[in-house]
Write the structure tokens for this entry.
Amino acid sequence: MDTIYITGGRPLSGTLAVQGSKNAVLPILAATAAIPGRFVLSNCPAIRDAAVTRSLLEHLGLRITEADTCLIVDSRGPIRAVPEAALACQLRSSALLLGALLARLGEAEISLPGGCVLGQRPLDYHLDALERLGVKIRRENGRLLCKGRPRSGTVIFPYPSVGTTENLMLAALGANGPVRLIGAAREPEIRDLAVFLTACGAKITGAGTPCIRIEPAPLHGAAHRILPDRMEAATWLCAAAATGGTLTLTDLIPDQLRAVLQVLRLAGCEITEADAELTVRAGPLHAPGAVVTGPYPAFPTDAQAPVMAALLRASGSTLFRETVFSDRFRHVPALCAMGAQIETAGDLASVRGVPALHGAEVSATDLRGAAATVIAALAAEDESIIHDARHLDRGYSYFPERLRQLGAEVHAE
Ligand code: EPU
């Protein structure tokens, strides 16, 4: 999808089942390279980042077939230690193959990974932690040459980095004794990785807390259902909130959206929760106060742009503080082109609600920024044209189709 055309002004309404989580399926796919076995992964989202990860794994020698939302992975044959550079540089999570390959082969050679540009995204936490477990790492022409099976030990993280936690959980599978991770990330996707690895025979305790312990154990294939995507859910909630719609989401875990729900409720949305279901009813909104992003369970950085878009017409001012990434207000110029009043300074963005937005021709900058731009266009009074809409394909399956299902006037090329 290159360009998306949206005629705004229609409240989004209806019922939608949430897709499987992007940020859960990517580390779980990487994990299948660490363990020789046959894996059946259900509820996989049809997104580009998962497709690129699949190609990376196939290039390493894994055999993968798909049926509906299931990926069936066979990693029992021999595998290579060098992921294809042209694929690895397309997504950040390719770095997780480091941990997986070190666990299985005791070596890995990987090109520096890509992903959305959200400011500096170094790998120093990953590499320092692996070095602390005895892995030897050399940097050569944009590649990382890593050797040595990780050894038993304790790693203290300087920051609860999601990717570092996942990479070290994978590397620890091949260690010669227990590995303790202190100061680990607590995101639900870490828990889901641990649930999957436990089904594969791994002995893991503490996932979802700052202290995770992994002990050596015989590993094998397993079946696993990927967690629902809390960020896709947040995006749809924001689209309904921005357009004054009524939307029911099914197949999700409301508790994992606590911080986002709190902000939307403070803004005036009526939200009811059931077991695996949420309904949002939105009318005129007001500013909920300050929104500060942070590691889970704080307000998620991935929801910052969509929530900002939802609040562009809320009465009063909302202050956003982005503490996770250094450059995550890249969607702001596109929102301002539609009439939004936003001022940014460093890690702060101040949104002053306006009575109405108008359509504009703009470009998307990154995955969640693209979602925010679409949300603003849905709330605007006439047609918007959003270029570089391909960012959406990274993380949202059947995005234009699902928007149309909820009553939006959208077409994509
Ligand atoms: N950081 C470092 N050095 C490192 C690793 C991270 O300085 O070695 C910094 C990052 O630059 C960033 C902060 O630490 O400023 C947090 O990074 P983290 O490692 O936690 O994030 P990530 O693993 O790169 C995952 C998600 C992101 C999500 C963040 C935070 C995946 C594939 N990506 O990224 O998702 O924003 O955690 O929750 O799981 C998205 O879905 O749109 C997305 C960007």
